[in-house]
Amino acid sequence: MGPVKAGAASREAFARYPLDLAVSSGFACALAPSQIGDLLIGTDVSPCRVGASSIELQEPVPCSVELRETALSAARRAGVAVQAGRFVSVSQVLWRADDKRRVATGTGSVGLDMESAAIGAAARERLVPFLVARTVSDVLDETLPLDFNLFLTPKTWPQGIWQVVCRPSSLTGILRLQRQSHVATAQLTRFMGALSHDLR
Fold first, then answer.
1. Which of 15, 43, 63, 137 is most buried, most CB within 10 Å of its CB?
2. pTM, rounded to two decimals
3. Residues 84 and 111: beta-carbon distance below 8 Å
4. Angle separating helix axes 157-166 and 168-199, nearest 10 degrees
5. Which domains does the chain have, with CATH numbers?
6. What is the pLDDT of residues 137-177, one digit of tens each?
7. Are 196 and 75 in contact, with CB atoms under 8 Å apart?
8. CA dist 51 to 26, 55, 146, Å?
9. Which SS3 state, helix, strand or coil, does residue 178 take?
10. Pair type for strands 39-50 and 82-89
């Protein structure tokens, strides 16, 4: 999880295997009006630094136009709601709705994740065609039940566990996210089946 690990794993994979394409898939936060389980396809993806009072977009990594069109067609054939647009990748979980809205307004993006820009940069170095295809697991106006950044390092794990134990509402929110993740997973599976068929 996160850009550093994603970039390192991608560079190792591209160096070891002769790959025909790279797809950054999984879950995303929607930065445009969407429903849980909708598919977001990237036109490009930019690393994004989010400060207390600033949003800084770095050089975008373009997605393959051919792969994007194939993905859009596969999604529609699979009956998965889909939209395309810019993605941004950040280094930390944006868990507050206010922060999500600020990034959406400041970047005009449809989706947010932590890994796609790093994977795309590694693919570009190797001239491997690249696609972002992720399903919505949380929506723009949704504040997550707790600060999931606490679970990114062993040092802060106890604080995260403490929040869950001391705030019963956090557990309710986590169960809600689990249900949303099941929906997003099912839709992503449907889409990937159709995309794999079309890429044969």
1. 63
2. 0.93
3. no
4. 120
5. 3-199 (3.40.50.1580)
6. 999 999 999 888 788 778 876 777 777 777 877 888 999 99
7. no
8. 26, 6, 20
9. helix
10. parallel
